[in-house]
């Protein structure tokens, strides 16, 4: 073992074993702003928030950021710095009754000039009435409120609450930040992993930091698990093979209902749209490794085929549906390979959003023009009464004409007869479709009952 590049701790030490009952991330949580890692953009030396913390001048706030970026830690440091009593609730299990209990405690403390800081984790899980229950107490300063959320506050929190707080965005920790967090945990004799004879090279610490995806809790969990594996096997060193085993067991940060989920599916979709197969495959693999249901991806791939490729290459939709079918029938890994094939095909296919735009335009004019009547010649006439009212009269059967096209025939309500809804592009097969429609328009203009006026400029 290279002693200059390795850090050791004593797995067999009784104090270390006793302290390990609590997760490592909880044991080594920093208690001062000086030991807090990351978030320099809001906690830099000259930042307003840092000055407020150091001066004990707290205000209610929302801490918004990915998991493991220090939201809870920062809230506890704020409470300690301001000498406020720290009360914490989880929006997963708490309700209005729990808020009322904190309110009563805060009122009692207020009489003794003791301040209260109420921290609510996952505050986005509170419904509107639960959020409203906080408003008067934030307003009159009964307690300082800090809410933590991984979700976009503008989507999940009501405007009344947002207007009474400041929102601070926490970012994923850098690799350097995570290396510092891990190194401190290893060197912390009192609460961390101490000094105990199981070594880990600096290169492996860096590897953990790289795969932790900016999440300090995840990084510390992987480190702790690696140490436990080594200790249980009487090893004095965490090597590459053991760390690889730990990494296989880790759960990638992936919330199927959270913002990271939507960020990744957005990245996949935009990579396909941008004709970038490498990017598309990367995000596809990231989602699979993170535990995303492949059938969800299959549905989104079908959407991409119609929205971004459309009639430029109609085979894209068939390939997407076939991949979905393979995943449904065979599962993984065969289905994943078929989905990868579809993702690559869609990424390299010619692109057209003409159908997507046409549908949006059709819906728009349908809403704007209301219930325009169906022209008589297009109506069905199954009864004598309907025929007597000229239902279906003067309809021209397209197959009776050259090129199976009844030149000049109108298929829209009279008020909309000059509307051009579908406008194909020059991409792939759609270029041929565009040429064919242009030819039909020429026939329309030359017919005795022209469908378009000469002044119509729509193509």
Notable features of this structure?
single chain, alpha/beta, Helicase, Ruva Protein, domain 3, Rossmann fold, Zinc Finger, Delta Prime, domain 3, five-stranded parallel sheet, three-stranded mixed sheet, 22 helices, disordered N terminus
Q: If you had to describe this structure to a student in words, what would you say it looks like?
A:
The chain is built from 22 helices and eight strands. The longest helix has 18 residues, at 429-446. The protein has 459 residues and is α/β, with parallel strands linked by helices. Helix 11 (175-187) crosses helix 13 and helix 18 (315-330) runs antiparallel to helix 19 (334-348). It has helices at 14-19, 24-27, 40-43, 48-54, 71-82, 96-111, 128-132, 135-139, 153-156, 159-162, 175-187, 202-211, 216-232, 240-249, 259-273, 277-289, 294-309, 315-330, 334-348, 354-369, 384-388, 429-446, and strands spanning 6-10, 61-64, 85-90, 116-121, 144-149, 166-169, 197-201, 237-238. The strands form two sheets. Strands 3-4-5-2-6 form a five-stranded parallel beta sheet, sandwiched between helices. It has a three-stranded mixed beta sheet with strand order 1-7-8. Helices cover 50% and strands 8% of the residues. It folds into four domains: 6-27 and 174-249, Helicase, Ruva Protein, domain 3, CATH 1.10.8.60; 39-169, P-loop containing nucleotide triphosphate hydrolases (Rossmann fold), CATH 3.40.50.300; 259-348, Up-down Bundle (Zinc Finger, Delta Prime, domain 3); 363-446, post-AAA+ oligomerization domain-like (Orthogonal Bundle), CATH 1.10.3710. Strand 3 (85-90), helix 6 (96-111) and strand 4 form a beta-alpha-beta unit.
